[in-house]
Amino acid sequence: MPGESADLPTVRVGLICGGMTPMVAQVALNDGSFEKAGVHVEKDCFTGGPQAVQALVGKSIDAFIGSYDHVLRQRARSIDVKVYAELYNGYSYELIAKSSVAMTSLAQAKGQTFAVTAAGALSDDALRLGLTAAGLNPDRDVTIVATGSGAPMVAALDTDRVAAGMLAEPTITQLTDGGKYKVVFDPTQPFAGNVIMAQTAFVAANRPAFVAMLRALRTTAARIASDPQSAVEPMRKDFPAVSPAVMLAAIKRTIPHVPKGLLADRRSTDPVVAATLKKGDITTAIPFEAAVDNSVLESIR
Questions:
Q1: Are residues 195 and 103 in the same domain?
Q2: pLDDT at position 112, please?
């Protein structure tokens, strides 16, 4: 709580704000769960992962909630960053088009123009994966443009500048709820899309505060799973334009992607290693044990 947080240890956490992928952290930030657990978590919003990772390495933030590939790149550079929890298993983006568009799957995508948030971003990777699986060449058979996320992409869809765009919750539910828009492609492959990463030296030096933060996140995740309604108003603090009914639907669609106990798992990290190797961002596979430390969460009773 505001009056109490000055007396609590602080952990500065970077987020890619604007979407619901870090839902568990967003709820804990907005409903006072961190303070109740004995830690003040300071939120720092970033527009993209590279900027946030730069801040993490430069120690202007203490932890970052982002995709696992960032951890792999830092470890390949001999920077001792590890994963301490997984908040979202999945790509988090889906390809949305107007219901009037004839395309119903990526098999019909040839010649179309699609929007992603940024070149090389998670939305771009997910779309390219789907196109390749559909037998198409993402560089030759379609046109992929970067529009940014949220409102700019929706504007591109509304004005028919693109046939479809890779969007995240709660925008997906907002657009599809009224029937004007539809989902064309929903990547369902396991993928460690949102993990909590930090430098090991920070965790070692601030273990009680870090444990308190993880405990609050685990408790919050369990509460949301058993009572999705409890997350509606905390989430609407970040998305006030989203109605309670749409927010509840978006929360329910997000819950299945939250790993049990928030523990990182090879089933979601291995696909990220494979994708990062394929992109050439790392040259050798980083072992799970070198990049993930579940022991802090496992020590919490």
A1: no
A2: 98
